[in-house]
Specification:
Order of helices and strands of chain B: EEEEEEEEEEE
Distance between the termini of chain A: 41 Å
Helix content of chain A: under 10%
Structural class of chain A: mainly beta
Helix content of chain B: under 10%
Number of helices of chain A: 0
Strand content of chain B: over 45%
Oligomer: heterodimer
Structural class of chain B: mainly beta
Order of helices and strands of chain A: EEEEEEEEEEEE
Distance between the termini of chain B: 37 Å
Number of strands of chain A: 12
Largest sheet of chain A: 6 strands, mixed
Number of strands of chain B: 11
Largest interface: A-B, 28 and 31 residues
Radius of gyration of chain B: 14 Å
Shape of chain B: globular
Chain lengths: 117, 117
């Protein structure tokens, strides 16, 4: 069965410093992986997705993630944090579901990113 | 842009009441989903639907039912609300792309924060 583990429940950085949010996945086949972001009192927004094309995936707002099969990791990074990046981030793996009628998204438990001025 | 709307942002109900949460999407998506989100647990799938009048149980269907009479609308029903159903409820939709693809991103509504007293 597919699963994801977000290694940090809370991360705090200073504005202008790099961001690293860690995610490890478990999958019995080549997975599709996503990062979603949730700002306070808002729904989830897709940041980026990996679908077995390029291993380095660029997303919105300057975020990117690298798929490393040997390490079963899909860490999210950003070179320079902005105050508006403060939010909760979810690493997600896609699982096949019900004979392919749709897929099932399996969510990590989330990482709360705080950005200090 | 895909738009997923939910009927209420905040809802307060009493134990034993029947509760209806409504979700509407405007992009003609085949698939619709209901999740609940609790701190430290991430998102957990309650039910999903891949077509009108079709529904499948997710990971935590107990105490819930759903209805999909029209393609754009997916309702979550709490038959007899209990305090342990106090949570954030998120609706999502996705486009069916065929069994050969697994990269189905889901589009989320803003959520309904339900409190059962």
């Amino acid at each position: 069965a597919q699963s994801v583990t977000q290694l940090d429940s809370h991360v705090s950085v200073s504005e202008g410093t790099p961001v690293l949010l860690r995610c490890n996945y478990s999958s019995s086949y080549s997975p599709s992986l996503f990062w979603y972001v949730q700002h306070p009192n808002k729904g989830l927004q897709l940041l980026l997705k990996y679908t077995s094309a390029a291993t380095l995936v660029k997303g919105i707002n300057g975020f990117e993630a690298e798929f490393k099969k040997s390490e079963t990791s899909f860490h999210l990074t950003k070179p320079s944090a902005h105050m508006s990046d403060a939010a909760e981030y979810f690493c997600v793996v896609s699982d096949r579901f019900y004979g392919g009628a749709t897929n099932k998204l399996i969510f990590g438990t989330g990482t709360l990113l705080a950005v200090q001025p | 842009d895909v738009k997923v709307t939910q009927s209420s942002r905040y809802l307060v109900k009493r134990t034993g009441e029947k509760v209806f949460l409504e979700c509407v999407q405007d992009m003609d998506h085949e698939n619709m989903f209901w999740y609940r989100q609790d701190p430290g647990l991430g998102l957990r799938l309650i039910y999903f639907s891949y077509d009108v009048k079709m529904k499948e149980k997710g990971d935590i269907p107990e105490g819930y039912s759903v209805s999909r009479e029209k393609k754009e609308r997916f309702s979550l029903i709490l038959e007899s609300a209990s305090t342990n159903q106090t949570s954030m409820y998120l609706c999502a939709s996705s486009l069916f792309r065929g069994v050969t693809q697994s990269s189905y991103e889901q589009y989320f509504g803003p959520g309904t924060r339900l409190t059962v007293t």
